[in-house]
Amino acid sequence: MDTGLNPVQPTPIGWTKTGQEVGPGIILQFQQRGIHLTLAGESLAIDAPADALTDADLALLRTNKPAIMAALQGQEPATADPLQDLLRRIRETWPRFRQQHGKRLAALGWDRDNLLGGTDPMTATNVEDLDGFPVMVADGAELIYADETRIDLQRADGSMVMLAKAGFFLEGTERDRFITGAGPLLNDYELSKGSGQ
């Protein structure tokens, strides 16, 4: 039955008469609902909880895809809060890291608790809830080595940092001692962990 009423399209946050803020407004609107939009090559990637997207959401994304992609290609302005800006960068970089390395790390026995202390960077509301791993990835660190006991990252400045499966980070000479087995570092750590010290 036609009521003669046109369905109301959701108005994206940030809409202006010129339409220049449509892309960033839609991105913000979806982020506030836990839905994250990123670029995957020439496509728009959507990371969303199950059943989070409605038909109206999908229509809004299809209609505004060029504006959204343009906003994602451009550098988003930093927020006034550096911690929220870092959280935004983590949400932008983590899906790409997960896509590139997730299956390989899972095959080596690494899981969410090993990497993240159980906190998903895509749903975290505070940077303080995350450990250093996704923060380093957001700051440009690249995975260069992984096995069943450790993951090595190379930071943007070229320095190396290692995440041991036991749950601690090492860098510099301590990392080198761990890798080569020189010195009692691992045994000291295991003993102190086991004795409750």
Could you tell me the number of beta strands?
6
Number of helices: 7
- Structural domains: how many: 2
Task: Estimate percent helicity.
Answer: 40-55%
* Overall average residue pLDDT: 74
Could you tell me the radius of gyration in angstroms? Answer: 21 Å
Largest sheet: 4 strands, antiparallel
Question: Which regions are unreliable across 5 or more consecutive residues at pLDDT < 50?
Answer: 1-20, 184-197
Give the termini separation.
Answer: 73 Å
Structure description:
With 197 residues, this protein is an alpha+beta fold. The protein has two domains: 1-77, no CATH class; 82-195, no CATH class. Helices cover 44% and strands 14% of the residues. The chain has seven helices and six strands, in the order H-E-E-H-H-H-H-E-E-E-E-H-H. The strands form two sheets. A four-stranded antiparallel sheet has the order 3-4-5-6, with helices on both faces. Strands 1-2 form a two-stranded antiparallel sheet. A hairpin with a 4-residue loop joins strand 5 (160-164) and strand 6.
Throw out a few tags for this protein.
single chain, 197 residues, alpha+beta, 2 domains, two-stranded antiparallel ribbon, elongated, disordered C terminus
Task: Describe the secondary structure blueprint for this structure.
Layout: H1 22-31, E1 36-40, E2 43-47, H2 55-73, H3 82-107, H4 112-116, H5 132-138, E3 142-146, E4 150-154, E5 160-164, E6 169-171, H6 172-180, H7 185-195
Antiparallel strand pairs: 1-2, 3-4, 4-5, 5-6
Helix pairs in contact: 1-2, 3-5
Short synopsis of the structure:
By secondary structure, the protein is α+β, with helices and mostly antiparallel strands. The chain has seven helices and six strands, in the order H-E-E-H-H-H-H-E-E-E-E-H-H.
